[in-house]
Amino acid sequence: MIRIIAVVCIIFNHTDGTQYYHATSNTVTWLYSMTGTILCRMGVPLFFMISGALLLEKKESVKQLFRKRIGRIVVVLLGVSLFYYSMDIVRYGMEKASIADFVEKFLTNGIRESLWFLYAYLGMLMILPFFQKMILNIDGALIKYLLLLKVVYDIGMPLIQILFRVHIYLDLGFVGDYICYMILGWYLDKDPDHIFEKLKTWKTSLFLVASIVINIVIMYVIFKLKGQYDVLGFDLLTVIMVPCSWLLVKKVTDNISQDGWTGRTILNIGSCVFGIYLLDNFCRWQWLSLYLKLCEKTVGVVACSAYVGVVFLTGLLYSCILRRLPIVKKYI
């Protein structure tokens, strides 16, 4: 379920929905864009939390890690890069297209910007063994300290930079990186010290809603004070929204049977999420003309929502078909 939520966030982040707040006098459209832009920041952290929950306790040698995981991502990255490079040749001609040009763009993430996640994920896998050893001594007290450092790094320091234009030079290492979300994902999934299981669903929901509202208010105040929006502001409360969303999904899905229709549906869609992410750019290109027509005949809220929905469903369809191919299924 968290995978599904995360990929919808990713798709929305790649649409014009994240830009409507710039030029609109319509309150509904502004709120839609502002709320969506804030929420979609959860997509990548949620994916890394899933990786933490699934991988940090894996007992694998470095050799197994390279063979089973790193090798798989390299093959996927190479394959999807070739696909999009070939698509660009067909669409644009690309007179300078060559093997050397492809290799250069492949090494510098110059084929599709959205593929940066795979490069980051590949780097994370390479240093995974170090963090697998590190979590053995992490307890509830350290998790609270980690969250405190993350709040300082993600909320306190950016706010000072936005409001006072002072950049605080403080490097907190992995606290400012996605590895932090991996550790949080591992801990929240297990909750060995029973810190979060006592947290009521309504309180978690309240924290999530309050974080969204406060972040919107902060963005509005920043605009009024500075006359422009600051993109740093969109990530301010992600560190609160992401764990809250994780815990809410965990509480809700704990009551869903994996053998029931709902459980099977969630599992089947969730298993296709990686494919949906890989094909997101292709699906958005396919439906771009429909989106533009909807923009002309409706309002941005309707057009963008329909665009996100149809891209998700198209990616799901393609992913389901590809996963029926034995060789492809091993990778996506």
Account of the 3D structure:
Pfam families: Acyl_transf_3 (PF01757). This is Acyltransferase. It is found in: Cell membrane. Keywords: Acyltransferase, Cell membrane, Membrane, Transferase, Transmembrane, Transmembrane helix. The chain crosses the membrane at residues 33-57, 69-87, 114-131, 166-184, 205-223, 229-249, 261-279, 299-322. The protein has 332 residues and is mostly helical. The mean pLDDT is 93. It has 15 helices and no strands. It has helices at residues 2-13, 27-39, 43-55, 62-92, 99-107, 116-134, 140-164, 179-190, 201-226, 238-253, 261-270, 273-286, 288-297, 300-322, 326-329. Helix 9 (201-226) runs antiparallel to helix 10 (238-253) and helix 12 (273-286) crosses helix 14.
Number of DSSP E strands: 0
Overall SS class: mainly alpha
Fraction of residues in β-strands = under 5%
Distance between the termini: 17 Å
> What best-fitting shape do the alpha-carbon axes yield?
globular
Largest sheet, strands/sense/barrel: none
The radius of gyration computed from the alpha-carbon positions, rounded to a whole number of angstroms, is 21 Å
What is the residue-mean pLDDT, rounded to a whole number?
93
User: Which regions contain 5 or more consecutive residues with pLDDT less than 50?
Assistant: none
Order of helices and strands: HHHHHHHHHHHHHHH
Fraction of helical residues: over 70%
SS summary, helix count: 15
Pfam family, one: Acyl_transf_3
Domain Acyltransferase: 2-279
GO molecular function: acyltransferase activity
Subcellular location: Cell membrane
